[in-house]
Amino acid sequence: MRGRLVESRDIAPSVRHFVFEVPGVDCFEFTPGQWISLSAVLDGKEITRAYSLASEPARGNHFELCLNKVGDGHFSPYMFALRPGDEVEMRAPMGTFVLREPHRDSVFIATGTGVAPFRSMLRAFLREGSPHFTLLLGVRHEEDLLYRDEFAQMALNTAQFRFLSTLSQPSPEWTGRRGRVQMHLEDALAGRQDVDVYLCGLKAMVDDLRTILKERGFDRKQIRYEKYD
Ligand SMILES: Cc1cc2nc3c(=O)[nH]c(=O)nc-3n(C[C@H](O)[C@H](O)[C@H](O)COP(=O)(O)OP(=O)(O)OC[C@H]3O[C@@H](n4cnc5c(N)ncnc54)[C@H](O)[C@@H]3O)c2cc1C
């Protein structure tokens, strides 16, 4: 399978939103939370990397990704060099980081591009009458708050959604939450123990929060996670 880049736009420093199409396919099917693997031969070596789908299914043969450019990384700089019309080798969606059935009130916690699968889930499942979802997003600076306007709009439109953000390196003018996502777990849980918690981002954050949640009495089944490194 190949993905063809339709368009891309920078949404934060070193973070880009990509829109791809899958030529020859009518409907690109996946479950929100899943990822695809992309491959390329770079310097004579085949390199493969996983990327979470950031869009909801039912977009015909289109899908979206949200990528961080790792300065000294092997694959992400290659992705940032793609131009509309360029194609990249890909494999069908996979992964088990999907909402438990039946869907329940849930808390999503992400750092950086770890927000991608949650954007997919929210766009697919958030509506009047859906379970309640809370998204806690942690980044360094205000300009790194990915899809900020979109999530703020979702929260305005739907009582079922709360959007919390925190900055680890805020400017003095920032009046919102400060520090790492771990510091705002209680706020996100709002005193509830009967919710599922989904964690996505780099290993250090995921491991830390899993430990805290287990100590707080959460059952293993209530915690799902995806580590990016
Ligand atoms: C299931 C899964 C889903 C993923 N989804 C996404 C996604 O939606 N968006 C995305 O940008 N990345 C995602 N990643 C990470 C991605 O696969 C690559 O690891 C990342 O693009 C770095 O690859 P690279 O070849 O450029 O860097 P490498 O040459 O492999 O260098 C790896 C370095 O990059 C760091 N790193 C890995 N991911 C990130 C990141 N997102 N931000 C900052 N540093 C990172 C690692 O800690 C390590 O130090 C996902 C990983 C997994 C396992």
Strand order of the largest sheet: 4-3-6-1-2-5
How many DSSP-defined strands? 12
Q: Give the low-pLDDT segments.
A: none
**Largest sheet features:** 6 strands, antiparallel
Helix content: 10-25%
Unique bound compounds: flavin-adenine dinucleotide
Compute the separation of the termini in Å: 25 Å
The number of helical runs is 5
Strand proportion: 35-45%
> Shape, please?
globular
Helix/strand class: alpha/beta
Radius of gyration: 18 Å
Overall mean pLDDT: 97
Sequence of secondary-structure elements? EEEEEHEEHEHEEHEHE
If you had to describe this structure to a student in words, what would you say it looks like?
With 229 residues, the protein is of the alpha/beta class. The protein is built from five helices and twelve strands. The chain has helices spanning 76-80, 116-125, 148-157, 185-189, 203-215; strands at residues 2-12, 15-21, 35-42, 45-52, 62-68, 87-94, 106-111, 133-139, 161-167, 177-178, 196-201, 223-227. A six-stranded antiparallel beta sheet has the order 4-3-6-1-2-5. Strand 3 (35-42) and strand 4 (45-52) form a beta hairpin. It is globular. The mean pLDDT is 97. Bound molecules: flavin-adenine dinucleotide (FAD). Residues 35, 49-52, 66-68, 70, 73-76, 112-113, 116, 226, 228-229 line the site of flavin-adenine dinucleotide.
